[in-house]
Amino acid sequence: xxxxxxxxxxxxGVKDMLRHKMRALLTTLGVVFGVASVIAMLAVGEGxxxxxxxxxxxxxxxxxxxxxxxxxxxxxxxxxxxxxLAIYGxxxxxxxxxxxxxxSVLRTVPVRWIRKEAWYRDRKLELRVVATxxxxxxxxxxxxxxxxxxxxxxxxxxxxxxxLTEYGARRLLAGTQILGETLTIGNVPFSIVGLVRNEESSGxxxxxxxxxxxxxxxxxxxxxxxxxxxxxxxxxxxxxxVPLHQILVEIRSLEEVxxxxxxxxxxxxRFHRQEDYRLSIPLALLRxxxxxxxxxxxxxxxxxxxxxxxxxxxxxxxxxxxxTERTREIGIRRAIGARRSHIILQFLVETSVxxxxxxxxxxxxxxxxxxxxxxxxxxPTYTPLWSLVLSFSISVLVGIIFGLYPALQxxxxxxxxxxxxx
Amino acid sequence: MSEVVIRLESLVKIYRLGPVEVPALRGVTLEFxxxxxxxxxxxxxxxxxxxxxxxxxxxRPTSGRYFLEGRDVSGLDDNARSDLRxxxxxxxxxxxxxxxxxxxxxxxxxxxxxxxxPPHESRRRALEMIEMVGLxxxxxxxxxxxxxxxxxxAAIARALTTNPxxxxxxxxxxxxDSAAGRQIMxxxxxxxxxxxxxxxxxxxxxxxxxxDRRILMRDGQVHTIEGSSP
Lengths: 422, 230
Description:
The complex is a heterodimer of chains A (422) and B (230). Chain A is of the alpha+beta class and 422 residues long. In chain A, 56% of the residues lie in helices and 20% in strands.
């Protein structure tokens, strides 16, 4: 069978379709909706997972985060439990050990979270403050809106300076012209030197619960406030001695992230009597999210694929009816000299053209639906090119597969019997 | 007389209807010379249609041999028989058998489609045949828009587009009034004069009179042959 004869059969098939426009449209409706729903479902799935991936990627795939966590009550020594002071968490030595003993570690950033009463002009409120080093701003990308971030010099000179977040500035009812003004945190007056953009609300890995209001140099924090924090917890107040709440570790390359995480974990286990820390690895989260995404897409795609299958069965149904209806035509073609293979080709081409047209309409619909969803619900959608190619090829394949049986049926008719058919 | 182009040797055709065997042909031996015009007659059930189907390579004999232009075609497979029909045989049926959704032109072009003739060439040959049967003003009409006589002329044009040596006609005037039937017979006999070998099945004696030889079938066997002998 040459390509040109295939083309001629296709042309004959299309002509035949056009003679029964309404019937062709109805027949192919199943494929139309099948293809449209495959594309739309994949677009919704892709959109959701891309959003999740972007959020995780913003944490930095090459970073490892170590967080202090309160050990489970029963693992605590009796003395510690009865006393008012809970001592746990990451130590300053942990940070030094990690930085100095692991070759794959580029740098480490120690972080303390504190809550303090603060005064700004005549307003008083409780602020959530992050005490850290300048590297923080490199690792966790925070665009500067005004002024500057913390510097090495601030560290060395233990300057009482602070950087506000947009969120913190808003809470203080301060405008953007706040550089140089004084913010009194606890009883220490800080000079405001910069304003940075907030992190997105989803970045829960760095911060305990709520957005950060201000950043201050870690040495200043230790010197002025000490390492003991007062935490309010279920109505009662407790004292905690937690030197560092978090250590951010930057790893040289992505391949080294997971080995480094294992080494850090082993090291921490050796120096901590209890599990008062926890590792969070964005890369691992990223991998997990990718695996979830894949499963999600497969499930969504298969559900939509079922409608394609139903569409295929619809086509087969109509084509079987068409074979019966056109028995005499088949007999005539055979008597004239058409081979069985010609008849098979004719019916296969007709079903593929039918499902191909359905696939095209479905394609347009499938591209339009996600756009509409995004427009109406702000749900993110993304239509990958491969989903268009995939669903269209499946629709044509469905035509061929479900057209095969009717085509064979048509070709197996005895020409004499077929000619007698009324 | 000229060379024999169709030779049938003790053809037997038995149809099996479940456990019952129905003999349709019980040993038919016949010869058809090139350029002859033969009418096969006989009452219904005499086997004349079965005989035409076997000659037309639509059916295979149960036993016996069939030589078409010297070549034994009785054992050929489906594809080979399809090709013989496509290139050497032209059919004309009682009920015209045009494809209803195709135009007259498309119907006449159909055999050329299966012969893989390029479109412009096939168009030219089809137009030539349509002109010959006098339907040039009906090219875009569909079969239902044509009279019975016109449909049968279109069917003859279709049978002729591939320029076959043989025309097989099964009751070509059976569905036509006598005037239209006469036109068809004039057309067939002009084809005969131009050298085509024609085999026609009919039960009407005045139609059979157009042929130069009449074969009477009875109970699956040749009963009498009348007219010019091979």
